[in-house]
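User: Predict the structure for this protein chain, please.
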Amino acid sequence: MALLLEGETRIPSGCAISGIFDASGKRMRGDSIIRSISTMHDRSNGLGGGFAGYGIYPEYKQHYALHIFYSGLDAKHETELFLEKKFDIVNLSKIPVRKHPRIKDAPLIWRYFVSPLQTRLSESQLDEMEYTGQAVNFVNSNIKGAFIFSSGKNMGVFKAVGYPEDVGEFYRLEEYEGYAWTAHGRYPTNTPGWWGGAHPFAFLDWTVVHNGEISSYDANRRYVEMFGYKCTLQTDTEVITYIIDYLVRKQKLTLEETAGVIAAPFWETIGNIKEEKKREQIEFLRRQFSELLITGPFSIILGFEGGLMALNDRLKLRSMVAAQKETLTYFASEECAIRVLENDLDRIWSPRGGEPIVVMLNEEGKKNVGC
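Assistant: Here is the predicted structure, written as structure tokens:
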């Protein structure tokens, strides 16, 4: 058997990510993000695709929207018994899908709009986000055949095994409208392609789409699992979502500070910072949360209520392009995924390694969305 030399075989940098955000809160149909991610078809291999949309459930915006995969009716029955003990279920239904020739072996896919039962919430002495997060972790860790893959308010994740454009058609995303969308086309290298392992990964209103590989996964996982998180979905990317939830929601760091933890500057770079107060702050974060430094190549788009953040690893070993047009911001692995939606841009650039790009709803947007 002849050996393939360097340059004689194509090993792509793997995965495609894309995001669209309108700071005015104006909602866009889901077929826009499908058009964007589909231009990067060759960066995927059909083993996973998915989307996250924000602002898509305005009629239920005060309730947590739980999207759940079930392997069978027994798992569904057990999960619903658990949810009824913890939450007021105001609506439940199958998530609408259409038959698609390239999407096969679908699990049962259900959606629940819930609010914590006030008596149970008071007894727990937790705030409602921690209460809901612990319930999500319990289901995913303890109920065999059930996976809550989306659990925020006024947002939802839609993912499957398949190319992303096929996944979007399967879930009928053209019927949803949101002020922010992210998308992922997967090219797994170390983990199996399965429905729960497709991106985005979500916890409460956080969602992460990721291109890259985390060599620090074991150290990162061990650290977050000390604080009640459980990595159950057979892929390294899941831990990024928990790290961000821990640092922002529990430790009260800003998004920029969080970026400075997971893509921390090298010590030499920190030493060259002339402003003493800034240098001391970065040194403190680097030492305090050293186990949460993510090593390895990555580019991510983080979604959350009211905004998006894009971030590369500190060496920028994965591609990321950003662009703006009036109130719209675009992120993607390749420029073509932006140009297909808007060619007449106000600005287009490539963010530096470790530089977070954060976009948030403006005052008009907050009013439009009801934040």
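The radius of gyration is 20 Å.
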